[in-house]
Amino acid sequence: MLKEELHVIKQGIINEVEGYEFYMMASKEAKDQEAKKSLQIIAEEERKHSEYLRELFEKMKDEERDSFELAFLVNPPSPKIFKWENKQFNKNSISVSIFGTAINLEKASVEFYEEAKKNTEIEEAKKLFDLLIEWEKVHLDQFKDAYDQSMKSWWNEQNFAPF
Hints:
Layout (H helix, E strand, L loop, with lengths): L2 H25 L5 H28 L4 H7 L20 H27 L4 H35 L6
């Protein structure tokens, strides 16, 4: 009954771990402490999400309906909002790469949970997937703005401005 939902949760755990590792790696490229700390906080959010999903998986795997419904009553930790305007990395090309990759990670997570939502009949699972979609979108929007700013700086550095 819950096989597909359990598979989604397992893949979600892997996605969050990958995000954690990427953001920790990216934090090492930060030029200033504020950028480094922001990426480490996002990494920590990813780690907390993976823990939440692991706990959810453990509650769901016995396939008892009551246990499954109770598992969705605890909300995972909400993402923090960051402003990336003044945070810098060692090179503009690194900044563009980091934010571009972050966009792709978050976009893939949104699409993954949207697909999972379409493929489940369980209302509690749909609610969970909606929540996870919204949280991934918070990071996605933040990284899109940062990417646009970094890209403008990189183009200026390459003497392509104002085109």
